[in-house]
User: Fold these one by one.
Assistant:
Number 1:
Amino acid sequence: MSNRSQQEIREQSQLIFQNGLALLQQGKLEEADKLFLQAHQLNKNNADVLNLLGIRSYQKQHYSSALEFLNRANQLAPGSAQTLSNLGLIHNALLEYAEALQFFNLAIQCDSNIPETHNNRGNALKGLGKNDEAYKAYKSALALRPNYAEALSNQGVLLLEMGKTDQAIVTLENAIQANPHFAIAYNNLGNAFTQIDRYDDAFACFESALQINPGYLDACLNFGNGLKKCKQYEAAIDCYQHALKINPNNAKTFYLLGEIYYDTGDSDLAKTYYAKSLELHPADIETHIALTIAQIPKVAKSEEELRNARRAFTQQLEFASAMPQQKIDSALLQRLITRHPFYLAYQDEDNKPLLLQFGEICASLARSLQDRLDTKQSASIQANPKIRVGIISSFICSHPVWHAITKGWVNYLNPEQFELYIFNTNGVEDEETELAKFKASNYSNCGTDVLTAAQIIANQNLDVILYPEIGMDTIGKALACLRLAPLQAVSWGHPETTGIPTIDVYLTAKLLEPDDANNLYSEELIQLPNLGTYVENQDVVALSPNLENLGIDPSLPILLCAGSPSKYTPSHDFVFVEIAKSLGQCQFIFFNFEANLTAILKERLQLAFANAQLDANQFLRFIPFLKKEEFHGLMQKADLYLDTIGFSGFNTALQAIACNLPAVTKEGARMRGRLASAILHRIGLDDLACQSVGDYIHLVVELIQSPKLLNSYRNKIAKSKALLFNDPEPIKALEDFLIQRTRK
């Protein structure tokens, strides 16, 4: 073929390409794609055509084709910033952030004045967990184009994940000002407002995003997430159902429906929606782990359901453990290791084997995050004579975990020997937080981004980390899967072994544990004296509630049952029936927790009473939550506090004793069933800690039928309860342990 003929073909190819571009700008995508392919067939060496075909393949998520086209373009015209940047885009989409970063760096070497390249480079750095460098990359993009809405939006999301919410909101508002029709920025701003509970502002943002783009699936889903967070569950479900109308085959929507139904106590519907999600995306590890956890109901409807649930959890856990390794981006990894089968602890069985298996899954996932941390220790810190103690918790505020465990550490660990570094994982801050800030050498609210928080903690080069609990706080759970200090210990805020290999020590108490306790933990067990904790004595301030308004008859025995619905297992429903049958007249006072969970417990108890030919309405009272002072007032009017069997209550039992209210408990086989009995043993009231359920029933009946005996216990409590408070022995023992283990 002559040179002239080849030139004509190239010109024809270029003309067809230009016509394709015109169609693309008109939104006629299919027609444009046909012309691009036609141009490519005429001239396979046209780098412009190859670039466009690569981008169109990327937009269709045909990433392998996109790489073929763009790699060919790069071979034909090496040194093209556009081609190199486009290759980086594809690798970003494939979660291959290191490869993407290489291409963006090369593109910037060729031409450093393209703001899109800097913006996309920021996304790659963010994917690698290099948030500070990502922030600088977005800043470079904005230096080239100050009103670059996409870069502002990305920078805002990064700031939000770094825990800098106020800066994030300002940046996202600037993105909207730069482009008032940028739906993504409204969506991201809605997420920021949701995080700080400014729900009306959040919902307005999501509505704006959907007005701009009615088919914007993520905005619809995030709207649902915000409604869920503020406990508007029905409205959230409506949002997710609307999302299914936008895209009926979106696996994430079914996943989120599974999440909300599990959160509200309907594990059957949760499992159904998780299964639908997996039909669409069978390899999704996040949904597999969620489905595993959902096998455990928050409140079981029957003993049979509980048995089947445990068996199904075991089987699903085996399946999740055997899943092949896959490429997982940093954000998903962080979400995965926040998960925990929290409600497994409410089954009164040895959970150690199952938690070890779950813990190994999390530890395996966390290893790639661990590799991204800089954990070098400086010589000046190594020479520090004081022991550097980190405390990681979301409950550095007026919360049961703070009052029972953490506050004693913060107030009474010897400041001459220990430096405290407190890390709040984005929890509430109040007057107790101010105390923590005053006592600590360093206080940090380290946000919700696990890698950012982990690096903040690692930078302090701690000798030891103390977790007051693991399982209640998702960010704390994720951080516990990483090695952030040579010694890492957990206490009993969630009274169950963690199964996590990076947790070395479990801090418990001699009075809390049975004789064979070591076999129940994956961690080394350290039993501190007495109750193992320093609890401050607080004066009881009581206000008498209006019993009549609560439906309580003051002339009948008042038996206080203050546990959450999850603590009442179906196997012990008969206990209330037997007590009622023996007493004839009495009132069991329960509290209205989350509506669906309370409804399951109420229905179960009503059935148990009906099966015994008793009218449950004569005996059961479900009342709203009371203010602390009114709750103490109710305790002072009650006859007995009935501790939950299998999963005991520590703080409630302590409050009962502080109010001189006798508590009856059944001492369990594991620590979580021995919290109230430890309190009773500590003050010499061993008789109130029963060794069998039959003894528990008998003792409750005996005490109600013997007012003189009941009053004698009130008097004993009044004389001995001071032993429970302001106990320095556990703190001294903890200090000795920390010195021994960190200063060998």
Number 2:
Amino acid sequence: MDDVDLDLIDELCSSFCTPCTSQNTKNENDTNNTNESLLSSNRKRASIVNSLENSKIKKVCLLDVSNRSIADEYDEVSTLDESALQMLCEEWEPKSQFPTLLTRVAGLLEKYRNIQSFHNWQKKCLDLPARRKNQNLIYTLPTSGGKTLVAEIMMLNCLLHRHLDAIFILPFVAVVQEKVRSLQPFADELGFHLEEYASSKGRYPPIKRRMKRSLYICTIEKANSLINCLIENRRMVELGIVVVDELHMIGEGQRGAILECLLTKVRLLTPQPQIVGMSATLANIDDLLKFLDAQFYEERFRPVELEEYVKVNDIVYKIDRNNFNENDQLIEHRRLDFKYTKQHLLNDPDRLVGLVSEVIPNDSCLVFCPSKVNCENVARLIISFMPEKLLDDNREKRSILLETLVEVNEGNLCDTLKTTIPYGVAYHHSGLTGDERQLIEEAFLDGILTCLTCTSTLSTGVNLPAKRVILRSPYVGSQFLTFAQYKQMSGRAGRTGQSQTGECYVIAHERDMKQLREMLFTVAENSTGCDSHLATNNNYAIKQLLLNAISLKICSTYESLLNLLQKTLLALQADRLNVNLENVLDECLQYLIDTKIVHIKEEGQESNDNSNGKIKKHVYETTKLGKATVEGSVELGLADSLYNHLAKSLINMNLENPLHLLYITIPFDLPNITIGFRQLVDRMQEMKNEEKIVLKLLEIDETFLHKKAVGLPAQQKVSKETMLRFYIAMILYDLFKNKSFYDVAKFWDQSRGVIQNLYSQAASFATSILYFSKSYDEFWPYHQLLPIFIQRLTFCTSLEILPIMEIPGIKRGRALQLVRAGYRTLRSLAKAQPNDLMKAVLNLPLRTAQILVKHSKRLLCEQAEDLRDQAAELVENIE
């Protein structure tokens, strides 16, 4: 671990942090005297090492400036000190019937979630032997039934009673970010660390905590990297529970294969942390139970009853799942009576607006559309039928929503949202930025918006229930709807406490009915959706699993690697999937050897064994390239190319501006984006000479670009990949110059969400490069350059406002205002008075100023605590 600068601790904590009190007066006085003498001296890093024998130094390193979350006069927050935490551990699980939540936790659930009691199924699930004995558990329940709360209680029990860390695995970055926001008040008040592992965020290895435990909220890929890191550093003993949301994703492509690899590694360790998996849709449940050695709990409970319908032309059929007669499973229910003119029918032949108008504006409605373009078109279609009197509903709140959206877009907003939001309608898809999606989601939950047109990704994202869910078509993109997708979408129907039933309508044509019936009834009974994907894509995931196991020293021999594969879900399904594990192992090991990622350390003669026949005695270990591949979580097929790319870029690296480094960090697996040569030429005409040096380094001919811009034939000297990576680097370079997302997206003719996704991918790939390069001494410049550059990529902004972009919810426009007003650091904001802040920054409300000060204090104290924990680790085990 790097040396810790104690001066920095003092600087961070001075002015507003209060030292904690000790129960032992003598120890308190000794510590205070030591602290005062050290504060008055001018300490240097070298002095830490030279005076380690002095026990007083150790006391200072271990001294907590504050064991409490920062409380200010605007939002009083108190947290558990060490003695209260010990009492919590003793009282958390009394002998009386579980769950008996502490009054404090119950109060937080009521305050932040409006939860006053558990459902009966939740009590039963939490009282299972598997839960009590910390054994593996899989449970399934319809969407909106309260699955996540049970998992959160288990994680709180692990953090506060068992005093162990927890990992919560979620499917998407946006869901991770939403869950971090949701759990932050609990972390503040109950005294545990909440750490986000998504995109470029996450520390490897995580800080070793002395007092508080950590809850890691991760995407699947980041969780895999975190598990690898904990295994490598022999810190898995700190981990008590791994919770997997949407466990059914184990059967979905390469991301499912990564999840299977992760769980296989966890299962192989001793002691093994508890594994808890949950989902609304699980198939092959027997295979999953054997794979995880888990108990199973299933409940059909829905807080709101679901009614399912299919609409064909103007006839609505009700789905009867209790009837096993094929001819009676769809019962004619009613005809739509919405009054259409001939022109209206031409515009809306599927009578979608008729279904929507039955529920809005008094209730809420989600319309799932097959594509992003269709989302926006449907939103405009709906408001074209709406009477103008709807403009009076929530007029003031919708105006505020529009103003806020304009603010997060730094003065801009798309025409569709400008037109639809006054009617209470908006669209929601990946073309929006994260800030826009969050504001629209919150407005929908608050009833400011009553109808969202969205893509299927919303069904696996944040919880947005509605009275009625409408599937615009039984297709997702060009693919027919699967039963799992239908379950996820229909599960959004019904709002607890606001209606007794939820409704799901599928709009279909006669030509779709045969396939739709099969999906709704036949596939529902015979789904095999949780099949292993380890052996797909040319056994890619198996190769990655073997490399991880060898690099982390989990396995090193042929026998142990074969045993590893026999612990996978694939092994349980091998016969049905027609996979021979030994043949696959031989093939994958040979690939790793041929690509110089793994080599044979020792070779011995094959020996006979009475039970197993011939056993191969090879011992495998990773090469430097293999270790770098694991450290950087780099795809196997890209490892050698990445090394060559970094080596070549290092020879003539240009650091006069960020453009060349941006190019270096653009991922290899590029999105399908058409290069806009006209925009590229326009931007190049604005470039300075020092910026154009990058063109020469990449051997990009300006004449070629000019010809392509005007549609003339031209011979390209560089590869298409190089050209595309430079094009994306130029887009991100605009953001580095503090240009707004809206302006950048408009100029380059890309959606705002695509632009945001590009810089998120670049930040993530830059993180991979950082850890990949640490295995090579010759790549030391990347070690020095990338940490701060990754921060810039994370927020895609200039250096001047970077220090305060870490504040939750702050936007670049507001950050620029604060910097120009003299608030350039977290510390300056933490020391500020909200009234002074409000006067110094134009249009800054008092409440926002209070929140900025509060968050700055919290972040600064977290940084100080991180440094204290690092200091404690530095002097650990030193007499």
Number 3:
Amino acid sequence: MRYVTKPIPESGIPLGGIGTGSFEIRADGKFYEWQIFNNKPWRCGGAPWEREQEEFMRPNDFFFAVRAKPEGDIPIVRILGFGAMDLELGYDPYTLPWVKGVESIEYVGEYPLATLDYLDQTLPVKVKLEAFSPFIPGEVKDSSLPVAVFVFKLSNPMDKPVEVSILACLKNPVGRFVQGRRCVNKVSKEADRVTIHMSAEGVPETHPTYGGSMALTVLDPNASFEAGLPARNQAFKRMWVDLRSDGLLESSQSEASSLEEVYGLLCSKTSLEPGEEKEMVFTLSWFFPNHIDTKGNLIGHMYENWFKDASDIAAYVASNLERLRKITGLFHETLYDTSLDYWIVDAVSAQLTTLVKSSFFTKDGVFALWEGGPGCCGLETLDVTFYGSIPIALLFPELEKRQIRLTASFQLKPDSPRYEDYVLGFPENRLALAKKALKDPRILSDPKRWKEALLEVVKETGLDPRGRIPHFFPGTFKEVDAYHMVDLMPKYALLVYRDFLWTGDESYLRELWESVKEALDNVLRTMDPAGKKLPYHYAPSGFEFMRGVLTMPMGFQTYDVWSFLGYSAYVCGIWLSALKAAEAMAKTLGDFEYAEKVKAIYQEARRNFEEMLWNGEYYSLWYDPISGVGDDGCMTDQLCGQWYANLTELPPITEKRRIISALKAVLRYNMKPDEGLINGSYPKVGVRPAMNGDMTYPNKVGMPWRVGSQPDTPWTGTEYAVASLMVQEGLVEEGLAVAKNVYDRYARVGLPWNHIECGGHYYRAMDVWALLMALEGFSYDASEARITFTPRVSENKFKAPFAANGSWGSLIQTRDGNIQRNIVKLRHGELEVRSIVLKLPAELDLSKVKVEASLAGERVETCLEAEGDGRVRVKLENAVKLSPGRDLEVVLSW
């Protein structure tokens, strides 16, 4: 027997809503990573070095099967998945050879849909499954439902009728592994459905499933059922024979209560005439309110505010299924209906899964994503949010603002628990406090006097750490881990500005404005010892640098095992963009004095940035003017600040020619065959750990440079960011090549929906949405209701999805001769538009360009203004509201 095998992907489309937990349906038809029970690693403990697991469901504990019987022929039974035997489920090639998995499955994972075509030559019917959880950007509740929907599409290719039954089987997991717990399964019948409600008695309050329930539902009021089938081999053997005989489950008991493990089963039966097609719909819903954080606080789930138990959720979904399915399908259709290459939108779709896989959405409305894992590192890791939250801000702006407000609420203040640590993080403060204690020893024993002394010290030295931004929330929202990263302050400012720009929410900006100023002023006050008006990296600035008495980190950044000293291109570039963002925010709020202040700071900071770090080809990794030591490494992410400037329509942080030169250097030195775009390299040295083993960094500091270290590896979130920056700057083919390498690399190893950095499902890679925006030349300034749509590929026939302020649709551009037609087609939500910026094929005499605009076919008065570089702004006489069916169309002719 000869087999040619290929690996089955070890990731799949997650089923579940935002903050509800999830499980995956994979290409073998089975269900994995059941993390809906408030269990580890979703709750916590998901770091690569922890690997804590609480497995309450195995892949075969939930499955579907089909029984098909052609008229006058024998019935065929197949598990809708792979597998030849399962002792608990009663089938094997010896005793029940007629119960087995299908021959093959064609799996298409295009989030939010997973489609499985079950292929088996012996099956007399065609069986196809569409599995999804409602995902409707702009609609928070309907995208946060703890439910999975399974739509089976059945068709009869034969020339005679066929009986078809679909069986759904679920083990009751409530209170799993609790000694003495009693499973309780109850069947309820409604006019349109049958539900098995699963709960348990005797579950202690400390158990993650305490007070919880699950509901297996079929939208067939005549479905047969088995309320409680014991998890025993012989019980299942009899069930299989029962199913095989007539396609029904013979049970009259509507309730089961058992001290042993039991399954609940539903079976829907129909008959298909030749050529006929039908659908059968099942749902699986869950309700587990006992979500306890790492400090023992009950935080629950947002869905508790809407539903009382799993059956209540099932009822809501059944009543609203047509709408939920239609709009979820519409989002999928909009995402994939494009002139762009398939892999581009598929890469975007794949990373949206992290939003469901890794999110918390608590009963009191706190929203955050795990950095990785899920359950790895922390929640709302701001340096990673800086990258990964781009689609959240566009698709669910309400949620994005929640997590930024959460960060702001823990900004470092004198009454913060960690304030003392960061006061004493500065040697000058430690020395000043020691001198005070010599004169007044009571400082060391009197907490009140100690606090007063700390405030006196920071007033004297000027090194007050207030205003620092927290790093992440360690599985609880009651505390943060640290304030040790110098890049967090400018990143926070840029995030606040970005969210204001994209939502137009001035009240949000006013609410956070003082915290933005405090964050930026902190850097100028405490993190610039050389007076360069730029952020400085004090040692220790990376985990490999944690030595001796220098134990209070102050100068870390997101590459936290890659120590920088002095002033780095990465952080200083972000800082320059943050200053421009602060100037724009200040002007919006009428704080003109602060606007002038940061404008002057920017001019000096940019001059110092160029003088210290530009080496004629790219920006050197870092330079420390105090010690005179520098590092001329070529960092892939060196122009991250420029990337964000482009995303938020800010002025460039440096000259165009230097941007292009630096990006070409990044490609030349850091793009590695069979690896991808690694984070950094040393062109003058020409060796690296991945080729030569462990070594030390080629600078005068002597830090270890090890195999697998951060600069010597590719981070997909960084690769996507830099790829989109390349496209933004006109290096379109180069940017697409970088992004395509990421897509192919992860597809090959079967992890397209699970990118790895610090743990799996890494949040940073969600920034691939920026690549889509770059290719579209799209932005939306909600404060001015201005759309920019200047595609960088396929300009003559372009179509791609877009999202803005919780609404979404398609952008379309066609050119035919001397006519250009642009359409903004909204598929969901509403969007205000006052102007739209477009690009003509060449610089034209504006007096010879004619413009016509219409909304839903009705003429809209406009005027035309030149923007430069072939761009024109079409200004509408009055603002218009776009909505589904009310398309904005602009026709330019010359």
Number 4:
Amino acid sequence: MKKTTLNVILSLVTFSLAHATIIIQPMPVPYPESAWVSLQDYSVKTNISDQLATTTVELAYYNHANRNLEGTFLFPIPPEAAISKFYLYVGNEEVPAELLDEAQARSIYENIVRQRKDPALLEYAGYNLLKARVFPLVAWGETKIKLTYSQVLKQSQGLCEYRFSFGQEDKMSTGGGNLSVQISLDSKIPLKSIYSPTQDIKVDRRSQHQARVTWQERVRSIGGDFTLFYSFSGQPIAFNLLTDSQSGENFFLALVSPEIATDATKVLPKNVVFILDSSGSMRGEKIKQAKEALLFCLGNLNPQDEFNLIDFDDQVRMFSETSLPASRQELKRARRFVEQIEAEGGTNIAGALKSGLESFGEGLNYLIFLTDGLPTVGERNVDRILSEVSSLNSTKVRIFDFGVGYDVNTYFLDKLALENSGLSDYVTPEENIEVKVSNFYKNISAPVLADLSLDFGRAEVFNVYPSPLPDLFAGSQLVVTGRFREGAKTTAVLSGKLNGRWKRYRYPVQFSTSSSWQKVIPKIWAQRRIGFLLDQIRLSGQSPELVQEVVDLSKKFGIMTKYTSFLVDVDVQMPVAQAYDQAHVRFGTHAPVTGEKAVQESKDAAKMRAGEAVVLPPQVVKAERPIIEKGETANRRRIASGNIEHSTVKTIDELLSVQQGFTANPTKTPQDRVAWVGGKNFFLQNGIWKESDYDSLKEKITIKAYSPAYFKLLQLRPEAGKYLSLGDRVIFEAGKLTIEISREGLEELQPSIIEKLK
């Protein structure tokens, strides 16, 4: 069972959300289920000046009890964080706090775990600890706790790393709360790479030397580390390399970051042709938003750019026979052309693409194509249209296409973009066309290097994504992931065209085979690899090799797709051949090419190609049936005594709901039963967290949770604390053994077992 937000145990109550933990004692018994402490807000604000980071954590707790409470505030400090000073406030009053070393912290963690019978804090084995008394937690009121600490961030391979740990996934007792992270970066040397491999951050680059990073959610649950990498460099294009290893396999992640703002002489001139579908199905709000998007793009052309417009329905109308300079006069005429577009007629996609491609000359050419339907006029066979585009595209035009709504052919639009070095995207009915297209165009408006290639010299790399590399744009960041054979010191060479001439940038780099406990880079690579494989299956048909690799990667890295989510439900020891067969059935013979399902599959594959997680729809999950006494008084007593898990039951109504076989919130996504911990993937199956690919042939021992043997294991294998923190029923590999933690088992470890664990 995963750790709960609140545990009530006779004389000890603990509320924890990830990093911060409050222990409240003693508590009266029986204790009404409504009296608990809940977290209302969680705010992290950090100011980073060069490599000095000052973090302020603000927590707002609400005490639902009818009396003031006293507690102990615990805040784990990562061992690599060199804390120079700290301040702790409860309300507006500064309170004294102790900074305990690893040994003292371990003793406190283990005592709490023994008393609570909850292993949540074991993930912090090896951490230092900040400890302070908190009083009062005001009855029926809110108490704010503020902690400020400073640390010097380490730099490796030109990158500085800032990390804030939210711990394993904890659930807020309120069912939702405000969570925000805000980081202000300030550097004497120009900032280049700013990247988070763990969160989808927003970066506001205010100048070459200042940036603001934000991440905000209203969430039911959070977990894991918030990690931010940043670099500073005087080079026009910075290059940074991160490497990691897992199970004998080596992975890398490279960040390519040009200047965030540059003068017109450094921006490549481009020729852009905008093609807009104005067929009858675009009537109403769609054509209005599409025209606004076109006007935005016209207003953001650079002075040295050239452009043209094509409006098509069953006819094709060109604004000009040739491309025109982005002068004030021509742009004024172009705006009038856009304003006069009306939606009517059929959809001559082939004719519009042919006219657009034939209008390009030499240089950096972009075609932006927007349609909401299928070809109904002229050539209607999409494979023949793709073939004609290929033969016409002699000038290497990058094609970026947008499908509007669900009546589009995703097979056609995705292949059109992928085969022509572009990107495809979709605007669903609830999304705004103008916002989507405008945001995209802002990102590609200032190219600084085209036709990119990246060579790693002596390092043998493979399965590199994205492939081919896109153009590089001012203020953007290119993230390249891949695998490599062996460690090596080498020179990375980035090549590309700058105003028609080849330009090369050289960077000394170190491919290291050392590993980290975060294991973020392997998982990002796996997400991109799965995205690539899903595209191959969608667009070219499935093959046994492709499906099998998707299954293997999903199981190893805990990356669930709609085709592999069944892995959460089947036993982890299922023969691989049987798992492959199930996946083949789910993939089916042909993927849909039109409709809502097809659009969603295309968007999901694009997210994975970008290294982003895909959220699967929830499933109804049957609740475990607790032993329940008759009568409300008895049930209240059982809740108060802690004999029923509060993660399942918090009120009498929920208790009665469980008695009928369902929880009050019966839906779960497959991701809720997957945990990526310490470089291992776990599935929650029948109440047991099982390492997804543990070796069943290894000698297996069963250890009783919270026994002397349990804590001896933690002493011998400190890294096991991360796995033990999942719950009191876990199966994982440890050296030569497979360990099962259960409610019954060994209470002492024999010398022979201790030797195998060393």
